[in-house]
Amino acid sequence: MTEDQRHRKRAFVTGAARGLGEGIVRRLAQDGWSILMSDINPSIHEAAAKILSDIGIAAGRLCAAEHDVANAERTAELVELAVDRFGGLDLAVANAGIGGVEVDLIDLPVEAFEHIVDVNYRGVFLTCKYAGRVMREQGSGNIITVSSIFGQESYPRVATYSGAKAGVIALTLAFALEMAPHKVRVNTIAPGYMATEMQWEGLRQRAAHAGISFEEERQRVWDLVPLGRHGTAEEMGALVAFLASDDAAYITGATIGLAGGVVRR
Is 130 in the active site? Predict the structure, then answer.
């Protein structure tokens, strides 16, 4: 790796305390990136310490911060922190998201609707906005948002989540066109059924609603997936690493599925 290549590996990843976000950070750290990882959960600091210990990288290459992605001031502050700490910003991954309660739309409390939209849509907007300003000025960079197969095909009892994730897809594709003249690539990943705690909570809710066991609901999901299993955080990290690399230099404005064949488009 040349010194210039090393200098260009500076990332900001939201929702990184566990699950897909942690998997993304682990892969980027292994690949030599310097990363600011954030999460609203204070356990973000423990997650960072464990990654440092497991991978054995220099402490200065990884830092952690508590962060509500729906807070504009805090998001702007953390983007600035990443730039100040690493000397620039080459990758922003707007990964933070929540599932929320699974219930018919007419029974969803207004406050729950607002929270789902704040985290899953407003949070992505803010990350794109502030990271995009830095990258526009640099004339280079990558932004990856995280949408969902639920944004490609709507599902009952998660209408607000589906709507927010569909919004992320539309926002990402339009933003890619805006940023292309500035040599900034913008793509979205649409995960399917992934082996994360958020997925397990969704399975527990659906199993209870259907009157079946967790194991039966998990098997029902596996029967839906052509590859017959849940995806992993490691596979998410690998896809982010590819999209952020020069091997993906001609990919922008794309929705990349990570769903084992559930959605084929």
Answer: no
